[in-house]
Amino acid sequence: MQDICNRLFDLAGPYLSVRENQKHTEIAYAFALKLLERLGGRPEIVLPAVILHDVGWSAVPPEQHLLAFGPGAIDEELRRVHEVEGAKIAKRLLQEVPLKKEYCLEICYIIENHDSGENPLTLEEKLVKDADKLFRFSPEGFAIWFERFGLDERKYWEILYHFRSSGFLPIMVGNWLLQN
Questions:
Q1: HSE of 70 in the Cβ direction (CA atoms, 13 Å)?
Q2: Could you tell me if 37 and 55 are in contact, meaning their C-beta atoms sit under 8 angstroms apart?
Q3: In this structure, are residues 76 and 83 in contact, taking their beta carbons and an 8 Å threshold?
Q4: Is residue 5 over pLDDT 90?
Q5: Residue 178: CB partners within 8 Å, gap ≥ 6?
Q6: For the stretch 44-63, what's the b/e string if a residue is b when 16 or more beta carbons lie within 10 angstroms of its beta carbon?
Q7: N or C end of the chain: which has fewer CB within 10 A?
Q8: Interatomic CA distance for residues 14 and 21, integer angstroms
Q9: If DSSP states are collapsed to H, E and C, what string results for the chain?
Q10: Between the CA atoms of 56, 95, 134 and 72, what dihedral angle is there, to the nearest 10 degrees?
């Protein structure tokens, strides 16, 4: 699986050059590994989906990114573009690695719904969504996001606290994160 993941990181590199997505993806990938170890799941679905989940931001003009994500997001359709385009890009990139076709279909489904889909259908989809969101709680993710949005640290901590306490992150994962 590691060879496939390394190849996918290489293939995804040009698509992850916006929004500091390379760093975001590396951190989300590390969280995905921890979640898989702790909660189970199929790495052959979760890891490629995490690597490719944000490649679609490359299809959104950079000057429009902050309209689609973060505390001031006002354009749900634009955020949806990154999911739909991301699934298309992922489908092409997944053809370059030896994965079963049914895995590729599931991975693309997860990518197409990783932000907009409210109720994950599988453990794997849930793990990808959680790994993506946990990035915000990492020291590097915290620094990237509060600077990107022009917030002071205290205000950003309040936003993160709201995410956790409102069920944005599952309590079990949130508690696990705080303990580790």
A1: 18
A2: no
A3: no
A4: yes
A5: none
A6: bbbbbbbbbbbbbbbebeee
A7: C
A8: 10
A9: CHHHHHHHHHHHHHHHCCCCHHHHHHHHHHHHHHHHHHHCCCHHHHHHHHHHCCHHHHHCCHHHHHHHCCCCCCCHHHHHHHHHHHHHHHHHHHCCCCCCHHHHHHHHHHHHHCCCCCCCCCHHHHHHHHHHHHHHHCHHHHHHHHHHCCCCHHHHHHHHHHHHHCCCCCHHHHHHHHHC
A10: 10
Domains (range + CATH), the chain: 2-179 (1.10.3210.10)
Q: Please report, in angstroms and rounded to a whole number, the separation of the first and last CA atoms in the chain.
A: 25
Tokens of 25: 């993806």
What is the reported pLDDT for 115?
Answer: 85
Residue pLDDT, tens place only, 124-151: 999 999 999 888 888 888 777 767 777 7
Instruction: Region of 24 please: left (phi>0), alpha (psi -120 to 50) or beta.
Output: alpha
pTM as predicted: 0.86
